[in-house]
Amino acid sequence: MPDPPLVVVADPIDASAVARLRAGPCRVVDASGDPAMLAEPLASAWGLIVRSRTKVNAALLAKAPKLALIARAGVGVDNIDMAAASARGIRVVNAPAAATQSVAELAVLFSLLLVRGAYPRMVSTKAGHWERGTHGGELAGRTVGFVGYGRTARGTARRFEPFGVTLLAYDPFVPRAVDRTEIVPLEALLARSDIVSLHAALTDGNRHLMDAAAFGRMKAGSFLINVARGALVDEVALLSALNSGHLAGAALDVFEEEPPMHRELVEHPHVIATPHIGASTPEAQRRAGDQTVDEVLRALRGETLTALVPSPGGAR
Prior knowledge:
Layout: E1 6-9, H1 15-22, E2 27-30, H2 39-42, E3 47-50, H3 58-62, E4 69-72, H4 82-87, E5 91-93, H5 100-116, H6 118-126, E6 143-147, H7 151-160, E7 166-170, E8 182-183, H8 186-192, E9 195-198, H9 212-217, E10 222-226, H10 235-243, E11 247-252, H11 263-266, E12 271-273, H12 282-301
Parallel strand pairs: 1-2, 1-3, 3-4, 4-5, 6-7, 6-9, 7-8, 9-10, 10-11, 11-12
Helix pairs in contact: 1-12, 5-7
C-alpha cells in the first residue's frame, strides 16, 4: 500500500490547525521551526503550507518534484512564483477571509490617529511635554478612497460607515459596488479623497502605483494608509510629499523592504509605522490556520476547492 501524501508545513501556523491536519489522510512534517529542515521533506512533498517567510520560487519548486498543492496561510501570494507553479500544474490556494477583520480594524485605527493628529501628541506626552490646544480634526465628513476594492477594503468600508464619511473606490476588476461606495477612476479618487487607503494586491503592473505623480494628484493636506503591500508605494516620492507638506501624514504597516531600511521615512514625525501586523492578531492567525487546513483537506479528499488562486492570465 502506498504511503499517504506528505504535507510539509514550512512556516508557523496555528497549532490546533496542524493537529487537525495530522488527523487527516496525510503524513505531516512540520519544518516551521527551522528553515534548514525544509529541504529534505520537500523531495517527497505532495503539499506545502507557507505564510510569508518561505519564498516559493523556481529554485524551491525544483526541489519538490512531487508537489501538487501550495497553500498560503494568508491572502497575498506574492511570495509564490505563480507562473512557475502554473507551468508545473501545481494548484495554489489561500485563506482570503482570514485577516479581513484585523486588517480592516487597523486601517480604521490609522485613519483616526492620522486625522486627529493623535500620534505626535502621544509621543510628545510620553517625552514629558503637555501640548494642549486645538489640534487635528474629526473623521466625520471626510472622504475615504480605497485603491483596490476586494474583501478587505469592503470590510473596511463597512467599519467606516458609522463615522459619516463619503466612500470612494478604484478597482479595475470591480465595475460597480454592492454597497454605497462610489467606484471612480484612480485620478478622481486621488483628487477627491482626504484619506487614500491602499488595499490592492501587488502585481507587475502596479508596483509603485503611488509615485510622485500620484502624490501630486492627491489633495493638499491629505493622508495615505498602506495596509496592503509595501511595493505599491514609491517610498522616496512619499517622503518628498511629506517633507514638502503636500501630504499631512501617512500610516504604513508594510514596506518595500522589511524590516525597512529607509529610516528617514520610518522616523518622519508625520509617519505612523508598524511592523506588518495587520494580520497578526491571534484571531486572524487561528482563522488563517483553520481555513488553510480546511482547503488542504478538501484537496486530499478530491473535493472542490473554495479558495483556488487563479493562475496568471486566468480570471480573477
